[in-house]
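Protein in question quoted in full.
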Amino acid sequence: MTMDIKQYMKEIGERARKASHAMAKADSAAKNKALLLIAAAIRRDADALRAANKLDLDAARANGLEPAMLDRLTLSDKAIATMAEGLEQIVALPDPIGEISNMKVRPTGIQIGQMRVPLGVIGIIYEARPNVTVDAAGLCIKSGNATILRGGSEAIHCNQALAKLVKEGLAGAGLPEEAVQVVETTDRAAVGELITMPQYVDVIVPRGGKGLIARLMQEATVPMIKHLDGICHVYIDDKADAKKALDVAFNAKCHRYGTCNTMETLLVSRAIAPSVLPELAKLYASKDVELRCDDEAKAILQGYAHLASATEEDWSTEYLAPILSIKTVADVDEAIAHINKYSSKHTDAIITEDYSKAMQFLREVDSASVMVNASTRFADGFEYGLGAEIGISNDKLHARGPVGLEGLTSLKYVVFGHGEVRA
């Protein structure tokens, strides 16, 4: 496509800003109708979506796309059903826009509260994840925002097919089609324009690899909701239930390798390591997982087929592959210290039956999601009941963890008076 990228993105921004004003005024019924129409269209056109996805997958394989990215790109029957179900979950959620909370009466007689309002225009940049097109559109519609979606070139056919269905749903509900716009060019210059248009875009949400997000952190002049790495830990305490430990540590690593909430480092209490590690190794062997261990864990696992010595670099590596680093620790204090040093502050879990240790872990681990006796794979907007997520943030300002409806809104103060004047 030959075009003036700067002018093209400016026009998209202008349309998005105009649409955002209409979306901010839209009532819940219209927004919910749009979401239900989109969900129905996704189910209706499932065959066409699979065909579009096949075009993307064939091209990706021909270009040598790595397995983790192919996994993200694949739009399975389950993924299509989940997209539609996610939209219906969003419909069932309360509309946050216009909600007034924290009301209080001041001595002067005025009443002060806070009203939840849309952010405005949200730019979303993502790579080989066609489901993000629907998740992002759904959340932005329900939260009264307009959005500009810039998907990766790997998913261009699928993203365009989904964009048509989103526009169909918006139009059917009487909402502006420009409330959700998919950037049609794969030219990377479009990203550079999108992240430097604060006059049109209020926040950027990047969902992609470290290279993309690192670039955006350097170049963006629009605020971002983001996370860079997903270096997640599971700590098996000496008071852990063995079955829970095996189930969780296996699922957290092997359910899917290419996701940001996959466990990358396993910490095991020294007291329980000789009994639990060999049993875990049998499970990991069934998936050909390479284990990179400290000296103590390596001694316990001698004879395991895929065994290596961990280096300092391993503790801060997001593998996104069947590779797991393992370290033995003295106790929960050492586990917490290791996590707070090496974690990307995404998701970390403890397996224990000791209530005091569990609560200490929850208080002291400085991550966006902290879990007790559950797989890190649950750190997801859909699993948290948000309907879907627009991304996961490990920042501390504005939004943290899976970002759903509330994360796409802001608060403004509202004041009710009776003619009071300030003395």
Residues 5-225+403-416 form a domain with the Aldehyde Dehydrogenase; Chain A, domain 1 fold (CATH 3.40.605.10). The first helix runs from residue 5 to 25.
